[in-house]
Amino acid sequence: MRKGLLWFIAMMFIAVLTACTTSSGNEGNSDEGNDSEKQAEGDSSDEKVLYMNNGEEPTSLNPPIGFDSVSWNVLNNLMEGLTRLGKDDQPQPAMAEDWEKSNEGKTYTFHLREDANWSNGDPVTAEDFVYAWKQLLNPETGSSAAFLGYFIEGGEAYNAGDGSAEDVAVEAVDEKTLEVTLNAPTNFFLQLVTNPAFFPVNAEVAEENPEWYAEADAFVANGPFKLASWQHDKEMTMVKNDQYWDKDTVNLDKVHWAMVNKVETEYQMFESDELDMTEIPSEMADKLIDGDDVVIEDQGGLYFYRFNVNMEPFQNEKIRKAFALAVNQEDIVNYVTKNKEKAAKAFVSPGFTGPSGKEFRDVNGDLVTFNPEKAKQLLKEGMQEEGYDELPPVTLTYNTSDSHKAIAETLQNMFSENLGVDVELENTEWNVFLEDQKQLNLQFSRSSFIFDYPDPINFLESFITGSSMNRTGWSNEKYDDLIAKSKQEADEEQRWEYMYEAEKLLAEEMPIFPIHYYNHVYIYKDDVTGVVRHPVGYLDLKWADKE
């Protein structure tokens, strides 16, 4: 990299990256210095109140709709599915106290707890799960998470409009027994149903009030906490749920969530004892990142960029590859994000171990590496193939955020330095950005992915033809076939071989390119313990405590 680019990176204002599907979570805390404020809010001095920040308003607290971390942070503590990830990130009994799996591995029979109740006292029933899962798959719901239900027999056909709700193989055998039949043996199914998309919905309440999830006074919970108050776009409060089957495990009396979308402000609130935890502003990373109070944990996810292959010049594979190979991921994590992330030189995150005992990442290795000379050659060849004397204008779009702006400006400089290409930058607000990306209105845009369940197929299946998560216009029959085979294959070694081949094909055609893998980096107050951040993106406060 030339001196000009190094100077540019060194002088830039930068901020900690957050995924478009993720928003960091912290919230207004107070210690003795804020006792009067706490009393005014109704917090008694002997209550254990955790103060956090959610970054922004949840997209929705309706389980099939709130498919992002700003919704998951709250939902995963208000509600609970058949299983719940434990402190070790493995599924454990939750609403279901036990289950059986058929000999061929396709049918699960779950037995719900007799003491599984909603916060209004209603029993949690098998029918509540049937109602919720069919809502998830109902094409009229328009859930971005519907693809997670495709493992269920009849699920994909119903969601695609080619089948009916009656064809979805989810049945309430009796009030406390749920039977689910899958298309094929799915070893990670118990992990899959920990995702908030599979949480139950109180069918009786939802029938009476379809907007039951929109306000605190209407919300019914079945998890460790229930919703006490909600001032939209400002704050919300959860309190311990006395109807929760495992309430004796819950230590906190209350959790107060702020909604502040700047990490710098969040850190200031932490310093003034308004928050119990904070992310690190990137301009302070060099000073703070190695502190004893900093906790760094792995997170399964990828920060990446999407090309729209239906828009010039990115219909050309070589031009896409040229842009990808012109990016130095190591410089971005070392000089821009500075959050000890791993530079991503492929797509599937580290941490997934196959049947051979080897990590997916170790087997498939680096697939996208910085190579400016090759990038220049590919650009030249691609332009010749398209008959371009001059490259059509390129606009890189990102959603409004200092952190995303910092990365985008760095890429802009790299493309100029390494390709001789001038790229325009454009930022839009999140909701507009997301809709434009889904509608393929953006030429070249930033993205993120946080794993919904711990298996490589979760990321790879996002790029099949027609997937709501694809958002590139890219389609490849061989890729689609590999993903379909991997979802039907019972032999684990063969299943992983299909996934290895699929990732390599993604790199060959490059509809997307990677920047870095995600991690969790937080500073906690000394009196806070037991906060669990699972690699798949769920925040869990069931075991949290505050001395």
From TrEMBL:
Gene Ontology molecular function terms on file: peptide transmembrane transporter activity
InterPro entries, alphabetized: Peptide/Ni-bd (IPR030678), SBP_5 (IPR039424), SBP_5_CS (IPR023765), SBP_5_dom (IPR000914)
Pfam families: SBP_bac_5
Biased composition (Basic and acidic residues): 35-45
Lipoprotein as UniProt keyword: yes
Annotated membrane topology: Lipid-anchor
Localization in the cell: Cell membrane
Recorded GO CC terms: ATP-binding cassette (ABC) transporter complex; outer membrane-bounded periplasmic space
Stored CDD domains: PBP2_OppA (cd08504)
Main location: membrane
GO biological process: peptide transport
Region (Disordered) location: 22-45
UniProt KW keywords: Lipoprotein, Palmitate, Peptide transport, Protein transport, Signal, Transport
Domain Solute-binding protein family, first and last residues per copy: 90-469
Signal peptide: 1-19
Record-stated family: Belongs to the bacterial solute-binding protein 5 family.
Entry protein name: Peptide ABC transporter substrate-binding protein
Species per Swiss-Prot/TrEMBL record: Lentibacillus cibarius
Lineage: Bacteria, Bacillati, Bacillota, Bacilli, Bacillales
